[in-house]
Write a structure and sequence with these properties.
Elements (H helix, E strand, L loop, with lengths): L18 H42 L2 E2 L9 E2 L3 H8 L4 H30 L6 H9 L6 H11 L6 H7 L16 H25 L4 H9 L4 H12 L1 H16 L3 H6 L11 H11 L3 H26 L7
Antiparallel strand pairs: 1-2
Helix pairs in contact: 1-13, 3-7, 3-10, 7-10, 12-13
Length: 319
């Protein structure tokens, strides 16, 4: 008669053998997720502050929305965009001036900022004071900068009054109300605050250029000009690309300086696309059409930024 074979009892699990790896796997998951859990509240908050306004602009761009005329509000579809490209007499003019403004400002600010960075990078007596003076305009707010230059361009107490005392020009001349001088006047005012931005970024990158490269170049007989084009500029490539891109976006969206100095005048000579958007929304209360203009400006900036980064090969090795 067959007897049942009883399996031998299992040995009790000893600590550190089978259960320990599972425990280590369970406890090892939390440390990996902990950084993401810690930054999740801030990330969600930032996403809300960024995503909600952007989505709101896209939504209102498809609407007729004017709080002063609620009976006309409603879904517009692409009517606002059709009006921009076909029936708006101001869109192309403001866009053209915006591109001109960005090209002139960014180019001049880059050249002057590069020159100032090279100067204050040298060793001389009072270098710390010189750097502080160069960088100080960047610490001034945009509104205060506008107020300073409004006073400087005042026809009764500003620069033109003192020039008239010296026999240059006439009393009562206002550079901001003359179509022939208003553009150079606002360019100079914005240069005063924009040049230090380039000087700061370029000077910071100049500090990291190895001195051995310049010493080796001097041994090989390379002059200052060749050192600048073959050592300094290649090293500053990424800093220049990034600073020009950031400044181009900021200058395209510049509203406070032009609004305070000229209000877009005289005769619309200094009206940029963002200033036109501000006037359309704040003054005319046409928020639907202003949202459509903002959407078009956003697409233009996004496309130009992508093309610029692609053509400049940002982050790539310099040949």
């Amino acid at each position: 008669m067959a007897t049942a074979v009883t399996p031998p009892p299992k040995a009790p699990a000893t600590p550190g053998t089978s259960q320990a790896p599972a425990r280590r796997r369970r406890t090892g998951v939390a440390p990996r997720r902990l950084p993401y859990l810690l930054i999740a509240p801030a990330a969600l908050l930032m996403l809300g502050f960024i995503a909600y306004p952007v989505l709101s602009v896209f939504y209102y761009s498809l609407q007729h929305y004017n709080p002063t005329k609620p009976w006309r509000n409603g879904f517009a579809g692409f009517d606002n965009f059709t009006r921009i490209f076909t029936d708006d007499p101001h869109f192309w003019g403001t866009l053209t001036f915006s591109l001109k403004w960005v090209a002139v400002e960014v180019t001049l600010q880059l050249l002057f900022g590069l020159a100032l960075a090279l100067i204050v990078n040298q060793t001389f007596v009072g270098r710390a004071l010189g750097r502080a003076l160069v960088f100080s305009p960047w610490a001034v707010s945009g509104v205060l900068t506008s107020a300073i230059w409004v006073l400087l361009y005042n026809s009764q107490t500003g620069i033109t009054r003192y020039l008239a005392d010296l026999g240059v020009g006439e009393y009562g001349t206002s550079w901001l109300s003359d179509t022939g001088t208003v553009f150079p006047a606002v360019v100079v005012a914005d240069l005063w605050r924009g040049v230090p931005f380039f000087a700061i970024l370029i000077l910071a990158d100049l500090q990291s250029v190895p001195k051995d490269l310049y010493e080796a170049a001097e041994v090989d007989g390379a002059g200052r000009l060749r050192q600048f084009f073959h050592i300094t500029l290649p090293h500053l490539k990424d800093a220049i690309i990034l600073s020009t891109l950031l400044r181009a976006v900021w200058e395209f969206n510049n509203v406070d300086l032009l609004y305070t100095l000229t209000g877009g005048g005289p005769a619309g000579e200094t009206t940029t696309l963002p200033l036109y958007i501000a006037n359309t929304s704040v003054d005319a209360h046409n928020f639907g059409y202003a949202s459509a203009l903002t959407t078009v400006a956003f697409v233009i900036l996004l496309f130009c930024s992508m093309v610029y980064l692609r053509l400049s090969k940002f982050g790539g090795e310099s040949k």
